[in-house]
Amino acid sequence: xxxxxxxxxxxxxxxxxxxxxxxxxxxxxxxxxxxxxxxxxxxxxxxxxxxxxxxxxxxxxxxxxxxxxxxxxxxxxxxxxxxxxxxxxxxxxxxxxxxxxxxxxxxxxxx
Length: 111
Hints:
This protein is an alpha/beta fold. It has a 3-stranded parallel beta sheet, sandwiched between helices. The protein is globular, with a radius of gyration of 13 Å. The chain starts with a helix and ends with a helix.
């Protein structure tokens, strides 16, 4: 899924990407490399995207970092849980590069 997402991001003009295999690795990278925007899947090993988002929001330096969640979890209670965790937007798979661009643009305008 990461490869598909990276290809979609490249196709819509985003080429400076940094990947992480899970939420734990993402947090490590956040503390080392300047990151402007996080795209996370809900379902990941070791630390899922919901926990990653909550952890990001609890850290003063990252509290306002834009987070877009992409997932297969489209049930209303999942969307509500993600919104309570303060994701900026949410995409349910499958999605098109156009939808990805729209969501990123929307998040960037409101962030």
